[in-house]
Amino acid sequence: MSCSPFELKDYFLKELPAAQEREVEAHIKGCPLCREELDRLQLTGAALFSLREEEIPQRIAFVSDKVFEPSPWRRWWSALWGSSARLGFASAAMLSVALLVSAVMRPAPVGRVVTDPPKAAPSVQPVSNAEIQTRIDAAIAKAVTEMESRQARQTAQLVSDLEDARRKLLVAAAEYDLSEKRVATLRASNYELPPLHGGGNK
Amino acid sequence: MIFRAVEDTDLIRQATRGSVESFNLLVSRWEKRVYNYLLRITANREDALDLTQDVFLKAYQNLRKLDDPTRFAPWLYRIAHNEAYSMFRRRKPETGAEEVEPEATEGYVTVGGSQVFPVELSLAVAKALDRLSPDQREAVVLKIYQGFKFEEMAEILACPVSTIKSRLYTALELLKVELAPVTPRGVS
Asked: How far apart are CA B14 and CA A128, in angstroms?
């Protein structure tokens, strides 16, 4: 116990106002017990400070990384590219858009191939309704021709396949006839046929 | 110190307005202190680092809730304290933080009345701190190592100043016995 006018620990911890600090300092000059108590506290403090602060093993990453900035667009984009499922969905969506754009843009080049004047006209020529109709007719005619030729190829292939199947059936029928004739000949000569699949004799 | 405090206040205001760079600067100023505070109360470097990251993430997310930027330090340490004790509760729900084993368990070194090497002294101090209760140890860490005032500690730990003083005084008495024992005549 100390007889200091104020708590020595508060003095040691620097929690006393300046006036009270001075009173304590004046007291300990004439009080060996309080002087000793304060010395022990200061020795304890010095020992505690021998435990040094450690460096942080790694800097805090999330705030120094731009990806943590509060931007919804950026978070969405990161999340999208961070997920294979979402990436697949995005790829499919992009492919769909590309197909749609291609389908929408396709008629223009077809018409131009059919009717455009040869090379670079410096100014845009007005196009009449009749010319538009002509282009449409030409595009339709071309498409129909292509479709007919594709159908013709498919029909020929189908006919060929059917012919092939018919030949195979004829061969199978001939083999069957031959087998029947062989059985009839053997029966006529009273030859004992071997049993079929464990069944009775014929 | 005052200059630094004003700077922190400015940084907090800018960070509140969305300046990530200002918050980065705040983090770089405080991360070592927060890490060491958490290291002292968890006695585990990995936990301390993970918790430090969580603390700054929560601080970033809740910075707008900080009404008075001059109270940033106690507010930040309050988050750190809560994060640490949440971890203690998750790991040992039946006993809380009372029985968390420290990482370092080296042998005890007597220091009273005899000269010791700095490493031995550090070991003795670590051992003496381990012998305190978690509450007492945290009070010592906040006061001696982090330099907070009683009122700030009360804010961080959400308890009255009288409780803070009581924990500190008891802790100092225990530490004094371990680290500055009474010599037969005079003071070493």
From this structure: 64
Q: Give the whole-angstrom CA distance, residue B40 versus residue B126.
A: 9
Least confident of A63-77, A136-150, B21-35: A63-77
* pTM attached to this predicted model: 0.57
Per-residue pLDDT at A52: 84
In this prediction, the answer to ipTM > 0.85 reads no
- Torsion sign across C-alpha atoms B18, B21, B26, B32: positive
pLDDT in tens, A40-57: 999 999 999 988 889 999
Q: Of B169, B108, B139, whose CA–CA distance to A41 is shortest?
A: B169
Closest C-alpha among B105, B67, B127, B58 to residue B86: B58
What distance in Å separates the CA atoms of residue B98 and residue B88, rounded to the nearest whole number? 9
What would the pLDDT profile of A121-154 be if each residue is shown by its tens digit? 455 566 788 888 888 888 888 988 888 889 899 9
Contact between A63 and B52 using a beta-carbon 8 Å cutoff: no
Which residue has better confidence, B1 or A179? A179
Between helix B20-42 and helix B72-91 the angle, nearest 10°, is: 50
Structure tokens at B13: 């205001």
List Cβ neighbours of A158 (8 Å cut-off, separation of 6 or more): none
- To the nearest whole Å, the CA of B125 is away from the closest chain A CA by 6
Mutate to test the interface with A, among B16, B19, B79, B121 (most CBs of A within 10 A): B121
Name the burial class of residue A45, with classes exposed (0-12), middle (13-18) and buried (19+) by CB atoms within 10 angstroms of its CB: middle
Q: How far is CA A83 from the centre of its chain?
A: 5
Q: Do A50 and B121 touch (CB under 8 A)?
A: yes
Provide the shortest C-alpha distance from residue B97 to chain A (in Å).
23
Tell me the C-alpha distance between B88 and B47, whole Å. 10
Which residues in B lie closer than 8 A to residue A54 (C-beta atoms)?
Answer: 35-36, 39, 45
- Best probe of the B interface among A16, A51, A55, by most B CBs < 10 A, is A51
**B35/A56 CB distance under 8 A:** yes
* Cβ of residue B18 closer than 8 Å to a chain A Cβ: yes
Contact B168 A13 (CB under 8 A): yes
